[in-house]
Amino acid sequence: MSDDASIAQGLPLDGFSPISLAEMDGVKLMNRVDTKYLTDRATLTGVLRDAAAVGYRILVADGSRISPYDSIYFDTDGLRMFTDHRNRKLRRQKVRTRAYVHSGDAFLEIKRKNNQGRTKKKRTGIPMDELPDFRGDEAACRYLDAHSDFQAAELAPALETYFRRITLVNPDRTERVTIDTDLRFRNFRTGLETTLGDAVIIELKQSGRGASAMKGILLDHRVKAARLSKYCIAVTLTDPSARAGRFKEKVRLLEKTIHHPITVA
Question: Which of 94, 126, 163, 259 has the fewest Cβ atoms within 10 Å of its own Cβ atom?
């Protein structure tokens, strides 16, 4: 999506100074504390204006300020990764492939959550045509074995997520803020698809739980922290056989945020 198209959607992105991928190298935060927030597009407009006013910069990649992301999540036949998260297991993992559509880069990614609430991410590059299924790539499978509790043979593609992301960086380059819009999900097991409409998921990524201007901005706009997993929400919405438990409350929160029920087809 071009800058002109993103601004036409009502998002005030032209007030930000740009930051390049090369400049962001020091803000990768592969070992970090994540805090997620849930809001809608109307509220996001004010959040963006305030963020620009206090000096946040916006990532510009391949000439665009909004980047499309396409991810495939893998899980066991019994949905162990979904179940571990539902059961509040402190040490848990997720395995996915992710494509950065504009750049053409694709990765196998392993995300680990430890019992201190920190997220560690490991990733290795894969060919773009392996996004739907990396399991035929011996090097990728060895990487999974080295960095995950799972082996490729016990995993299968479970769910696809697609969204558009805005990435902000604070003036000191000590934190990143990702803003995901236009979220769409497709379940490979059931064939069901859905979209979250005007819902916006904001994620603050820091090396620690320090002070943040963005936290103050979100508070001013009455945007509250919400523990959300795109994968778990998507499974809850698109797999009627999954034992969703507490994730049903997250779906109700999403529907309250966008002011209408989420439809699945």
Answer: 259
**Residues 6 or more apart from 224 whose CB is under 8 A from it?**
37, 38, 218
Is the separation of the CB atoms in 137 and 126 below 8 Å? yes
Locate 97 and state its tokens.
Answer: 């492939």
pLDDT band at 115 (very low <50, low <70, confident <90, very high): confident
Q: Which domains does the chain have, with CATH numbers?
A: 3-258 (2.40.320.10)
DSSP 8-state symbol, 223: P
Structure tokens that stand for 111 in this block: 């995300």
- Residue 50: partners with Cβ closer than 8 Å, 6 or more residues away: 217, 220, 221
The span from the CA of 155 to the CA of 128, in Å, is 19
> Which residue did the predictor score with more confidence, 34 or 218?
218
DSSP 208: S
From CA 221, how far away is CA 41, in angstroms rounded?
12
Determine whether 92 is exposed, middle or buried from the number of CB atoms within 10 Å of its CB (0-12, 13-18, 19+): buried
Over residues 126-141, the pLDDT tens digits come to: 999 999 999 999 999 9
Give CA torsion, residues 20, 25, 30, 32, to 10 deg. -80
Q: Tell me whether residue 160 is exposed, middle or buried, using C-beta atoms within 10 angstroms of its C-beta: 0 to 12, 13 to 18, 19 or more.
A: buried
Q: What is the pLDDT of residues 165-203, one digit of tens each?
A: 999 999 988 889 999 999 999 999 999 999 999 999 999
Residue predicted with more confidence, 208 or 234: 234
